[in-house]
Amino acid sequence: MREPTRTTTLRYHQVAIGDELSDLTLPITATVIVSGAIASRDYQDVHHDRDLAVERGSEDIFMNILTSNGYVGRFVTDWAGPEALIQRVDIRLGAPNYPGDTMVMTGRVKEKSDGIITVELVGKNGLGNHVTGTVDLRLPQ
Amino acid sequence: MSVDFKVVSHFASDLRDRAAIAGIGATEFSKDSGRSEMRLAVEAVTAALEDAGLEPADVDGYSVFSMDNNPAIEVNRQIGGGDLRFFGRVHYGGGAACATVLQAAMAVATGVANTVVCYRAMNERSMQRFGAGVQDRRPMPTAESAHFGWYAPYGLLTPASWVAMSARRYMHEYGATSEDFGRVSVADRKHAATNPAAWFYQQPISLEDHQRSRWIIDPLRLLDCCQESDGAVAVVVTSAERARDLRQPPAMIRAAAQGASHEQQMMTGFYADRITGLPEMGLVAQQLYATAGLTPDDIQTAIIYDHFTPFVLIQLEEFGFCKKGEAKDFIRDGNIELGGRLPINTHGGQLGEAYIHGMNGINEAVRQVRGTAVNPVKDVEHVVVTAGTGVPTSGLILGRD
Amino acid sequence: MKKSETPLLDQMRQLTGAPVGEPNTARDPVNQAMIRHWCDAVDDRNPVYTDPEFAEKSVHGGIVAPPTMLQAWTMPGLMSREEREARAPRGPSVLRLLDEAGFTSVVATNCTQAYKRYLRPGDLLTVSHSIEAVSDEKKTALGVGHFVTQLTCYRDQNGEEVATMRFRLLKFRPTERSAGAERRGAPKRSRPVPSINHDNRFFWDGVQAGRLLIQRCFCGKLRHPPGPMCPVCRSLEWEAAEACGRGTVYSYVVAHHPPIPPFEYPNLIVLVELEEGVRIVSNLVDIEPEEVEIGMAVRARFDEVEPDRILLQFERAKG
Ligand SMILES: [Zn+2]
Predict the structure, then answer these.
(1) C27 CB-side CA count, 13 A
(2) What torsion, rounded to 10 degrees, do the Cα atoms C200, C206, C212, C216 define?
């Protein structure tokens, strides 16, 4: 089993509005895209078959939305810790993640109230913003 | 017709009659010159020197547009000019036109140079169309590039569109109509129709033609927009004394001025309290009248920069030829056509003759002073010339010696 | 907008709220194996998903599934085309109506998931879908289309709702240009991008986040377009104040020529005087040019004019 990123969890009072999350740099490879698609049981050809993806007008295979959601979830708990509870994920989808690109995820704490913090995040690749959005996290008091 | 226009005397400069335009030159005006801009430049410059009766070796200064693609040293080398003691460039598009003459006049009045050439040479139709706007500019983190970022993402990309935004507000506040703008075009084309050098020679239009022309950017129609042209124009500026000894009767530079308002923008003056004026042109007018010791009543004809018709109305107001908001009435009465109170753009203007960034208008003003214009105005003493509008600008009053 | 009063929109709106297809139960209960695949794929090393000892002592008291894995539990898996067609819901549906009306292309724009509780191994999900909303016809950079919001409810084996998902997609009629570009795989021409520098970055970042920000000096002076120094007090310090978005049309133009891609013509461009007192240029949308008047009340909105590109736009203020 891979070593956990962190085993402790940020407390609500330890977090301030404006705090920045640790960046996540993700080299996008065909393996990243295909393994994400299959782990989410998404067998649409544009996520694993390059020739068919190109035939359908795409540049290459591209990451499916379920996988993007997975990276958003990982990004926030890598920073906040394993016992941070994800309440809500609200994302806007943009530039596709193609193999050979790199996505850099950055975020900051936007709001804080009643034990819940709202993180604002962007996953940016060479074409623009792949994903932008917010995540609500409940942190231990 | 006097409109209680108050001239502010403290705007007077010492430039009155210190320098003169001694020679003018131009190429033909076309839509495809078939030769390089540099060649157009040297043709116009040598024609102007020939007109003045000067040799290229006499030239010791240049004053040109920063937008011109032909460096003065290149032009000077091509024509076999002399060593240069003065060379300046003026920024802000067509607003530079009369300013090149202002700066040349300052140079010769102070002895910095003796013979300064101003020119503008462009294949603006066949090579680089201004009407296409700023659509293909690569974003750079500079102030000038960032400026267009407030407009380009919405499709407000062309000079016509920037002027149209101000024009709509002007129409709203003063009740001017598309037909009122059209009357400027009709007058210009009437004058161009009898000017063999004009692109629209023998092609007058009616107000109905104007009203039938298609929208470019409502409220501007096709016939509200100047041409896009290939061509070059040059003038030679020297001291008044020297000019008197040359081949042509001098067109005295009675006054020359630049102006930029404290809230100046580049074509997009949308943010001042009121946007229905051209305060930079008002500032130019004040300086010109004060320096020349003249009032609007002393002006017999004018070259009013006409890239787009609405700003002709506003300039007539800024120069005190009529009251604010009343240009529509002034032009409805035929005042701007030959035979009227103030014939404008007797060569056909940039709507009728050619769009050479205002420089062809300076040549026409010189011809009116000399009495050699194809559409002469009777008893001309003083001619007003204006430069690009919506930008930091400039103006001249030329007069007989 | 008059155009929206179409039978198509009426038909679609009658279908909103009604279920789409039959509820569908997951093929497998939530299970450790699939969780592990998922965590490997996205390299999520959170031990509450995969380390029973850690999970036991955690706030969860045992293994839980990653919340963002929600959709995976009810995905159909690998299917032949015949199977896929056999599963497709019968009867009228909003998406089918749009297909039939020529809005054949689709692009996902937003996904919002809200979780009521973490899922545990053994939970068996049942999913049901409905169409929550259909927008008026919108002009977008991709083409004219409708935004469709689909609401998906996830219930557990006890019928309790454990999560919801709102999925927003654009069904559009590809423009010839965009269709051609798509076929060739060529990048589509985008609207000119602004030049971003130290003096204006806040504004464009604000727009991307759906906020209209105006530079405000600490002396109170509002400045637009922004710049580094306050012309009143010469301060170099400033803050970004959020405008309320209400304003009036100060002037406007209707662009017809030259047609510059990707703009659609006629293109309505307005100079808006914001309630705060500064003016700003933008587009006015969802209105016919002849309906515009100087002085008309408008309000800001933020449209995704092309994928990943939010732009300030204005629309007529309601009421
Ligand atoms: Zn201040």
Answers:
(1) 9
(2) -50
When scoring C44, C63, C188 by the number of chain A Cβ atoms within 10 A, the one with the most, hence best to mutate, is C44
- The yes-or-no verdict on residue C183 having pLDDT over 80 is no
Ordered by start, the domain boundaries in chain C are 7-30+65-176, 201-316
Mutate to test the interface with B, among C251, C265, C278, C305 (most CBs of B within 10 A): C251
CA distance A70 to A38: 13
- Once rounded to an integer, what is the mean pLDDT over residues B333-356? 97
What average pLDDT score do residues C91-111 get? 83
For residue B218, give the nearest of C194, C224, C256 by CB distance.
Answer: C256
The pLDDT assigned to C189 comes to: 74
Q: Look up residue C199 and give its two tokens.
A: 């003096």
Chains C and A touch (3+ CB pairs under 8 A): yes
Torsional class of C210: left (φ above 0), alpha (ψ -120 to 50), beta (otherwise): left
Spell out which residues of chain B touch residue C197, defining contact as CB-CB under 8 Å. Answer: 141-143, 146
Burial C258-285, CB ≥16 within 10 A → b, else e: bebebbeebbbbbbbbbebebbbbbbbb
Q: Which of B62, B119, B289, B305 is catalytic?
A: B305
Selecting among B92, B119, B174, B355, the annotated active-site residue is: B355
Cβ–Cβ contact C196 with A under 8 A: no
Greatest Cα pair distance in chain C = 73
Confirm if B264 and B388 have CB atoms less than 8 A apart.
no
Give me the residue label for tokens 């019968």. Answer: C90
Domain segments of chain B as ranges: 5-125+226-399
B355 counts as catalytic:
yes
ipTM score of complex: 0.96
Q: How far apart are the C-alpha atoms of B305 and B355, rounded to whole Å?
A: 10
Q: Please report which helix (H) or strand (E) contains residue B343, including its range.
A: none
The pLDDT of residue C101: 82
- Interchain CB contact of C17 with B (< 8 Å): no
pLDDT at C181 over 60: no
Question: Do the beta carbons of residue B84 and residue B69 sit within 8 Å?
Answer: no
CATH 3.40.47.10 assigned to domain B5-125+226-399? The reply is yes
- Each as own residue / partner, the long-range contacts of residues A25-28 (CB below 8 Å, 24 or more positions apart, any chain) are A25/A102, A25/A103, A25/A104, A25/A105, A26/A71, A26/A102, A26/A103, A26/A104, A26/A105, A26/A123, A27/A102, A28/A63, A28/A97, A28/A98, A28/A99, A28/A100, A28/A101, A28/A102, A28/A103, A28/A125
Does the domain at residues C7-30+65-176 carry the CATH identifier 3.30.1060.10?
no
Q: For residue B219, report the phi and psi dihedrals to the nearest 5 degrees.
A: -95, 20
Q: Is the pLDDT of residue B137 over 80?
A: no
pLDDT at site C20: 84
In this complex, the chains that touch C, judged by 3 or more CB pairs closer than 8 A, are A, B
* CATH architecture label of A12-28+64-138: Roll (3.10)
Separation CA C170–CA C109 (nearest Å) = 7
Domain boundaries, chain A: 12-28+64-138
- Alpha-carbon distance A137 to A12, whole Å? 10
Whether residue B241 is predicted with pLDDT greater than 60 in this model: the reply is yes
Q: Quote the ligand 1 centre to C217 CA distance (angstroms).
A: 5
Residues of B in contact with C282 (CB under 8 A): 154
pLDDT of residue B61: 98
B289 is catalytic: no
Q: What is the rounded distance in angstroms from the CA atom of residue C98 to the CA atom of residue C172?
A: 8
Region of residue C91 (left: phi > 0; alpha: psi -120 to 50; beta: else):
left
* Nearest residue on chain C to A67, alpha-carbon basis: C42
Pick the closest to residue B361 from B120, B129, B50 (CA basis): B120
Q: What is the dihedral of CA C256, C258, C262, C263, to 10 degrees?
A: -20
Fold (CATH) for C201-316:
OB fold (Dihydrolipoamide Acetyltransferase, E2P) (2.40.50)
Give all chains having 3 or more CB-to-CB distances under 8 Å with chain B. C
